[in-house]
Design a protein that fits this description.
By secondary structure, the chain is an alpha+beta fold. Helix content is about 50%, strand content about 15%. It has one domain. A two-stranded antiparallel sheet has the order 1-4. Strand 2 and strand 3 form a beta hairpin. Helix 1 packs across helix 4. The protein is globular, with a radius of gyration of 17 Å. Bound molecules: zinc ion. Zinc ion (ZN) binds next to helix 3.
Length: about 130
């Protein structure tokens, strides 16, 4: 890898990390509170069943090293995105966070789909931020 490519990849890596760590405002209309890290999947249901001592392994790809490595990550920091503030996240998703998990139920499917769509929205926001930096 030549020096110019290393410089460009390093720059992309820095702005990507900055975009990932940036605070986000709650997605609820007219709410200006900071968004919390919301789990895409049910932390106290689905994720707990596949963790070991509260951790999971996640593949992270490094452009600088041109390879991927598995990293041990705590359950509070994996499969999350910044969607809503604590109040609105609880109002919207309490049903799937604090009830017995039943994926065959229509309301459960809708709520998980909604979270997945919002996660994709945030990914696109990050990509736009990175591409305009
Ligand atoms: Zn809010």
């Amino acid at each position: 890898m030549n020096k110019q490519i290393k410089i460009e990849l390093s720059f992309i890596d820095r702005i990507t990390q900055k975009a990932k760590k940036a605070n986000r405002i709650c997605l609820e209309n007219n709410c200006s509170d900071n968004a919390i890290n919301s789990h895409i999947l049910q932390k106290n249901g689905i994720l707990n069943t596949i963790t070991t001592n509260g951790h999971l392994y996640m593949l992270k790809v490094s452009m600088m090293e041109a390879q991927g490595k598995f990293h041990k990550i705590g359950i509070n920091n994996i499969f999350t995105f910044k969607g809503f503030c604590n109040k609105h996240d609880t109002l919207l998703f309490d049903y799937i966070e604090n009830n017995i998990f039943n994926i065959t139920e229509y309301k459960t499917k809708i709520l998980f789909c909604y979270r997945a769509v919002l996660n994709e929205l945030r990914k696109k926001n990050k990509s736009i931020l990175i591409s305009t930096t």
